[in-house]
């Protein structure tokens, strides 16, 4: 997992062949003006813009993916996220859903952290994460980068 500010995004370009494309696109946008929905940037990179009420920590989704890396960028609001290494999660809810690229867990996060607007977290397949914890509306953008 990585946590940083969007203004530092370019330094992560060497970590994946599509990170440079994603961070260049993000820095060129008026993030507040982005329409809610799914935007295909290129083959293997899509953006999901959402605006939803935050949830309580007791009802969060605790999830991870096999086929994508998530770059989760907060646009507006205050968001808290939970995190735990996948290797330490022992309580899956069902089996991995290949079509949706997700598995959920009932384990508790090892830690929580908060993002402010303009900050992002990168979650790799080994990072189980609980997004959207908070009060009020949270507008965010999730970049799905195919591995």
UniProtKB/TrEMBL annotation:
Signal peptide: none annotated. PANTHER family: EVOLVED BETA-GALACTOSIDASE SUBUNIT BETA, PROTEIN YIAL. InterPro entries: NanQ/TabA/YiaL, NanQ/TabA/YiaL_sf. This is YhcH/YjgK/YiaL family protein. One of its GO terms (cellular component) is cytosol. The lineage of its organism: Bacteria, Pseudomonadati, Bacteroidota, Sphingobacteriia, Sphingobacteriales. NCBIfam families: YhcH/YjgK/YiaL family protein. It comes from Mucilaginibacter myungsuensis. It holds the Pfam family DUF386.
């Amino acid at each position: 997992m990585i946590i940083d500010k969007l203004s530092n995004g370019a330094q992560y370009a060497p970590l994946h062949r599509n990170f440079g494309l994603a961070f260049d696109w993000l820095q060129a946008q008026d993030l507040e003006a982005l329409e809610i929905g799914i935007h295909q940037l290129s083959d293997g990179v899509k953006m999901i813009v959402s605006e939803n009420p935050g949830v309580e920590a007791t009802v969060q989704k605790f999830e991870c993916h096999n086929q994508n890396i998530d770059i989760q960028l907060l646009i507006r609001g205050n968001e808290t996220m939970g995190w735990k290494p996948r290797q330490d999660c022992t309580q899956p809810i069902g089996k991995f859903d290949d079509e949706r690229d997700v598995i959920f867990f009932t384990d508790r996060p090892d830690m929580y952290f908060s993002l402010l607007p303009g900050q992002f977290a990168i979650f790799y397949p080994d990072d189980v994460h609980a997004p959207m914890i908070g009060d009020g509306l949270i507008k965010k953008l999730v970049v799905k980068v195919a591995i």
